[in-house]
Amino acid sequence: MIRTTIAVAALAGLAGCASLDVATYQAERPTLDLARYFDGTVDGWGMFQDRSGKVVKRFTVRIDARWDGDTGTLDEHFEYADGEKQNRVWKLVKKGDRYEGTAAD
Question: Which pTM value belongs to this model?
Fold first, then answer.
């Protein structure tokens, strides 16, 4: 009985972490066109929060984006409030009406 309760609680917890269905946003306008949005330099700001909502890390990011046909490169330069810096390069490939993205990490 205790194992069943633990298993049900674990499954309920995992269900709470499940990703949203992107179809929920299908009718939103304007339509997101990644190749158009990520073209040139894009600046962004963000933060990470813990489960209680407390901000645990803030950052700024500069994304240098370029496209060659259906293949895009997003070169991300992160700078965190604590001085840490990170770089990540994404390769995006348009496959029909979807994109596939990969990064080295």
Answer: 0.70
